Amino acid sequence: MINIVQTYWSMLLRSMGQTLLLCLLSLIFAMIIGFIFALMNVGRNRFFNLVGTVYVDAVRGVPLIVLAYFIYFGLPSGIKAMGIQNFRLSALSAGTIALSMNCGAYMAEIIRAGIESVDRGQMEASRSLGLNYNKSMRLVVLPQAIRTMIPSIINQFIITLKDTSILSVIGFPELTNMGKTISGNTFKSLQTWAIVGIMYMIVIVTLSKVAKRIERRANRGR
């Protein structure tokens, strides 16, 4: 195991950096997607309700690996069939889109549940004070809802970090893909995957500790 670390440490660290980059980009876009479709679902417009529901149900009903294959292989193929040549997506772009769509669907439900957990009287009170719906949502409802969402958002962040390993199937050079390469080169599968597992564990446990501290501070601010 020590020999593997000494020989491949730079490649392992680089692949972990790629994993964290993919996770961070995906979460940023997933939060945007989540807020958009959550607001569609809690609004009173039936058309927007339908669009939001269809998106969430459709994306959550498709395995992430199938979504990744569709975006990386299927989407460029479909665009080329339309006469647009030389179109292709990098593994990072396809992986970010797939993870963002997948995580965004779950974020939409987390945010919707958080908004609906706020007592309706808060919205009614703010409207009675002269605030319109958008300001009431932004200034009164969402600040309270976000505190309720924090544990679920943290949990989804950790799940998304783990899900990056699935994207090794499209050749993205994240940690699991690097583990496959090192295992193939050294023929030491047990030691290689033990190292990869420990690296994931260190990062995830560290992020969990940081997240719990953020959660405690948010709860103290209530």
Q: Can you describe this structure?
A:
It is a single chain. The protein has 222 residues and is mainly alpha-helical. The protein has a single domain (2-220), classed as MetI-like (MetI-like fold, Orthogonal Bundle), CATH 1.10.3720. Helix content is 83%, strand content 0%. It has helices at residues 2-42, 46-60, 64-81, 91-117, 120-128, 133-163, 175-186, 189-220. It is flat.
Number of strands: 0
Q: Could you give the distance between the termini? A: 48 Å
Radius of gyration (CA) equals 21 Å
Helix/strand/pairing category: mainly alpha
CATH structural architecture: Orthogonal Bundle
Compute the average pLDDT: 86
CATH topology: MetI-like fold
What is the CATH homology-level superfamily?
Answer: MetI-like
Number of helices: 8
The biggest beta sheet is recorded as: none
Task: Based on Cα principal axes, name the global outline.
Answer: flat
| CATH class placement | Mainly Alpha
Measured as a percent range, the helix fraction is: over 70%
H-E string: HHHHHHHH
Assembly type of the shown chains? single chain
* Low-pLDDT sequence parts: none
How many domain modules? 1
What fraction of the residues are assigned to beta strands by DSSP?
A: under 5%
